[in-house]
Specification:
heterodimer, A: MetI-like fold, 2 domains, 75% helix, B: mainly alpha
Amino acid sequence: MLFILLTVIFFVMRILPGDPVTIMVGEKAPPEEMQRIRHFLGLDRPIEVQFYSFLGDMFTGNFGESLVTHRPVILELSSAYPATVELAVGATLMGVVIGIPLGLVTALKRGSVVDHSGRIFTFWTYSMPEFWLGTLLQIYFAVQFGMLPTSGRLPATMDLRTITGLMTVDSLLQRNLGAFVEAIRYLILPTVTLGLVTLMPQVSRIARASMLDQMREDYIITARAKGLPEKIVLYRHALRNALLPIVSIIGLSFSGLLGGTVLVETIFSFPGLGRLLVSGLLNRDFPVVQAIVFMFSIVVVAVNTMTDVLFAVLDPRVRY
Amino acid sequence: MAVRRYARLYRSASFSAKIMIVAGVAVCVTLVFLLLFSRFLTPYDPYEFTPDRLSPPSWNHIMGTDRLGRDTFSRVITGTYWSLTIAFVSVISSLAVGSFLGAVSGYMGGRVDTVLSLIMDAIWIFPTFVLALVVALVMGPGLINTAIAVAVVALPVFFRVIRSQTLAIRDQAFVEAERLINAKPLYIIRRHIAPFYVSSLIVLTSLRVARAILTVSGLGFLGLGIPPPIPEWGTELAFGRLEIASGAWWLSVFPGFFIFLSILGFNVLGEGLEEILRPVTVTNR
């Protein structure tokens, strides 16, 4: 699978219009100079040779050098990815923490006002483009000045030494509570936008559906007939079984979540991989784009594998 | 025939499904109406500069004007044409190509199936929006090119649904019988297997149009869709956002609202239809 992925990335990047060398040195550069650079980058070698060296580079983490900043791509990535990790983790938590209870409540109060309003809310957020929700939040909080910051990761005046790159973890490690609070405040809007749009609706819909399915099962009747308290029937028996589809939808939605980071990071000027990808695309910075697309795809594959493993843990019937 | 069958299904639907279908149809019909007649419904020329700059919503300009004095309402209405046309074109093309390949792959099996499934899986593992971004960049800006970018990422969805349905049907006795009298594969697919696709394709198409509108406007928002001055909703929203600091909220609120409303409309319609048509498998992402 990874091999196919790499092959596709390689060839797509090669058929992109626009010669990277021309972009690097400008239209007016002398041909000899361009030839020299092309040779230096290895772009004058036969395409098969380029392909094999590309494969080798990808596996060893050698993503080349950015055509714009001339820094190694791996450095660009390592300074950007913690922001995305924070955002993605926050959004996932947000989706789970709101999504699952919402799904459960709507399932248990089926047909009631709570159920209907919950479902309408889910529809509402499901159809909400993240870039519109983000913009609306920005308009609101720009007016309510000072309540929540609308862009960036930390105030410009605040300087935090980088250890892991995760602002929240770093500030705690340095026992800098002020910075921790600020980091959280800066995270709130992007996380809410991303979590509410990309994960929460899916999770709560699946949670509702699978909870309803479980409640119809015979073992629920048995448990109730034994006189078990309703709480235990719901949380110990039904919820445990209902968790399986929820886990798998979180895995499936993760790809959408990564796509969402691109938009959300752009809106909130959040310096993560998504924003790096957009600037890379607009500048035709092929090595950067290539590396980010590769990383995103790996993460999607990894998350899906993890969900499969988690499935086996949650459901003893599943064996690989 | 078909109409009566659907009417019967609709009558037997639950109350909430009925509401969803009626609401969805209402939104979609309105949007298609705007698409077809956008030219006649705009009170002003959407491209004309006027001295009336950045004026807030009023009776003259119900959605205000932008920095160049262009009427936002006229631009949003004109945007309907662009955003929805791209969404429809892309969904129809991925529907046609994806289902055809899915049917062939499922019916033929063997090496054809292996190769096609592998290609579709390769598309599938990329995060969809990221893939659309890259394809949009490769294709360059423009109506057809954006449509292709959005269509490519939706291919595996149609492919998978149709393939799995074909697999389920192809070994049934009535298909076997056709094969015995030496009917051609394409004839069998068209005549005996395709009717089984209808329910899921209707549902899937509606849900995919919603998704396509989202992707198209997302591309426009990042500057990789339809280039200005064409008032595609996502592009409009991106430019409107630049004016938030100057207090002109109407430039980002209204285009975004139209994106949201049209996505909501097609989603609600799709969900409602899913409830009455009950297709076997619909995976949407």
